[in-house]
Amino acid sequence: MAYRIRTFGDPVLKSKAAPVTDIDGKVARLVDEMFDTLYESQNGIALAAPQIGVQKQVFVWELEDAKPMVVFNPEIVESSGEWVYDEGCLSIPDLYVEMLRPKQVLMRGIDLDGNTVEIEADELEARLFQHELDHLHGVLMFDRMTPEQRKEAMTEFRRLQDAPPAAEPRRRRLRLT
Question: CB 3.0-4.6 Å disulfide test: which of 13, 46, 138, 169 passes with 128?
């Protein structure tokens, strides 16, 4: 069963998620449903539980040519470098903004078997870890912008939301100065 993805303005996206204390059948079903939701979105590569209204520290992801992954109670324990990339979000549809984030990260969390895992990542995977961790802490892309950038991005987001539905996706890349 796929969930509805919560979008900007929904208060659940601004709340900090609770740690997962028990990895049981209920949590395993949640993970399956999160993947169903991610696949139904057709253009996402990762999804955090708060994006579907579940306030638990879990996110799923699948990059091209890699197996689907899940992590509970993740944290970034190391980061380095810088990388600018057009970042998008399923909860802020159609808007892509150049964002600066660390290029490499080491993430620690718990896998579906209850084991502690550490994953080294760079570029896109490192970015998605940071983005999804932001969701678990109630932080959206808009919160990472300067006031001027946020104003410009919000104007563009509202314009995209008010535009009539298009036959093609309305992906719009926004360079913030």
Answer: 46
